[in-house]
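Hi team,

Filling in the usual template for the complex we talked about on Friday. All components are listed, including any nucleic acid strands or ligand strings, so the model treats them as one assembly.

SUBMITTER: L.P.
PURPOSE: interface mapping
COMPONENTS: three
RESIDUES: 847
SEQUENCES:
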Amino acid sequence: MAVFSDLTVHENLLLGARQGRLDAARLEWILGFLPALKKFWNYPAGNLSGGQKQMVAIARAIVEPRRLLLVDEPTKGLAPAIVGNLLAAFRELKASGTTILLVEQNVSFVKSLGDHVAVMDDGRIVHAGAMAEFAADRALQSRLLGLAMEAH
Amino acid sequence: MNDPFSAAAASQIEALPATGVDWAPLLLVPVVALAVLPLVGSFPAWVTLTVAGLAMGMMIFIMASGLTLVFGLMDVLNFGHGAFVSVGAYAATLVLLPLAGWSGADSVALNLAVVALAIVAAMVATAIVGWIFERLIIRGVYGQHLRQILVTMGGAIVTEQLLAVIWGPDQIPLPVPETLRGAVVLGDVAIEKYRIFAVLVGLAVFAAMFLVLNRTRIGLLIRAGVENRAMVEALGYRVQRLFVGVFVAGSALAGLGGVLWGLYRETLTASMGGEIVVMVFIVIIIGGLGSVGGCFIGALLTALVANYTGYLSPKVALASNILVMVAILLWRPAGLYGTTRR
Amino acid sequence: MIRALLSDDAPRSRLLAALLVAILVGLAVAPFVAGGARALNTAATICVFIVLVASYDLLLGYTGIVSFAHTMFYGIGAYGVGLALDAMGPTWWAVITGLAIALLVTLLLALGIGLVSLRVRALFFAMITLAVASAFGVLASQLSDFTGGEDGRNFQVPELLRPSYRLLDNDVLGRAIDGRLVTYYLLFFASLALFLFLLRVVNSHFGRVLLAIRENDFRAEALGYRTVVYRTLANCISAVVATLAGSLMALWLRYVGPKTVLSFEVMTDILLIVVIGGMGRMYGAVVGTVLFILAQNYLQAGMGKAAESLAVLPWLAKALHPDRWMLWMGILFIACVYYFPSGIVGKLRGAGK
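RESULT (copied from the run log):
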């Protein structure tokens, strides 16, 4: 994910807010699970590390309530603790009625979030169905995901 | 800008202070000005040279600022920008010549009013010309540098020629209003009033641009668009519309620069914009393409150096702009505040 | 034989071929057909401008970079020969010395500008050349002790080229075989040779690499071609040819001055001719130059007549005033960039097929 490197973290988030200002309560909630952003609030985003930039991009995407979120590999480059925070945040977003279309390689992250799942191989969907069924069927998982499963 | 974060102080992590400003380029102008003081020797001469340089620099800055922003935002370098300077100066005659009585009157209010009206007329005229120019000439060649350079050059030729069709090919005298004539004398130092006026207008434009860019949402969008246009579009903003706005505003600034410069020269020719535009290009190269702050410093620096060398060694002054540009590019190859991505 | 001379780059259109032959023959016999000094002057200007424009096309059309310093190199050639003749007296040694110094200055400047700005991007090159060229123009007009300033310098040419010199005692075909005629043919053959040389350059392997860089410099670099080297080399060749063209012009005019060889008007003329004739097509330089210079010399008078007859419509009359010639050229230029990027020659070739 890309951020505006010459703009500060604050300004990056402001750009995501279509109404032109940040909602204090929602910001408090975001900074609660992405605390590093608070530390670098007035820093140019370009000076941040890859994982921190990722946080800025995530925060910018959810800075206002949206009906649909398209998210591509949000956990890439994030520390495990932050991934846990992110998971909780996405669950809250989901509970508040946001539809999330998530593309992710981190299967355990996906399993604990999704209602539906589609597995892609070589550009084609090779399996689609309910996440509960997929999560319960170990044989299906190992057939589709192979050894990678064991690692998780 | 609102900062709800400072109000919501529940979290215990403290925000780090903002990172420092890149000071070295900011020091350049005062350091150069002070360094030549012993070389010039006489203090009154130094003050006169410095004020003259600042006045010229401010005028160049006003003309260059719009050009550099347009370039940064849309990657369009308008070689026709100089023609807008001429358009502005000619449009000012629509006010200044019929209202010559106001400029000649012994009333500060009337004098300043006529200048203000002339500036408004020039800015409106160049804004309209800029809007037409963008529609007819630039819109079709986005992203194609070679054709961009060619068509904007062609546009400049046509615009200059149209000025000659409308106003005739001869030079037009443009008298400076009474209040702005003559000099202010402080002890040994005499400073021309018009130069002070130009410096004040330049500072006002710089302050206004700084505030718009750093304190408003439009400014935030412009800065974001300068850095990464596609990402701003991905966030759902219409950069094209923003760009037309910036282009029109940049053209209007060229018009303002044209009025100031026309009054400074006191005569107008259709090619006056084409002559100054070389200086404008040098300034935006020095500043770093797309940087308003760099453009400001670059404008003051080149104009001051031109004046100092003109006094100290007239032969060197002929190439002083190029020498300053080469020196700056050796120090910072992308210009004072250039980004490496471009 | 002809194929080899043209470097296998045939006109590929009957109409274009006929036009080119007509131009060649016309220029070759011009001194005997053209009545009066003005017509011969036009023919000589056409010869030099064909070379000047073609060398610019090597940059603009074939390499895809915009330079505003082409007149600077043209001016260096003219001033080099002119000032040397002025300082050393009217000898061939002066011509050779002046030319050698001019070529050296040209090479240094072209290399310097190229190495500084060609690695960045086309826009940067355009801006830097504009800045350097305008500074050079200021220098030439201000260093008046050396260059003669705004007034320029008149000088004597070697005896063989002087109007008073007679090569043959008798007239041939009703024309005196004088130094003027010798000078004209010097220009004619030198220009022809330079043009054929440029044609060879663009049709060589080097020329094809330039085209590849123009189309996609990233891929050309990936194929192993150092784009900076190729662009800089193209810039140097183009500049050297422009310098030679400038020195020819100086010999013809027996005068150098900033207005005639350094001004920005000359630069815009070159740009207009290349684009209208056809970018990336050497023959475009020939056709474009002939049409442009003939129009400039003879069509402007027609504009004046049209303006008089339109006196009832004062604005249109003003726009058709001969001095507003560039207005119409500018409009034609923009239209060409937008709608006929291949120019006249592209159109002719397209129609011939």
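MY TAKE: Chains C and A do not touch (no CB pair under 8 Å). Chain C has a mean pLDDT of 88.

Thanks, L.
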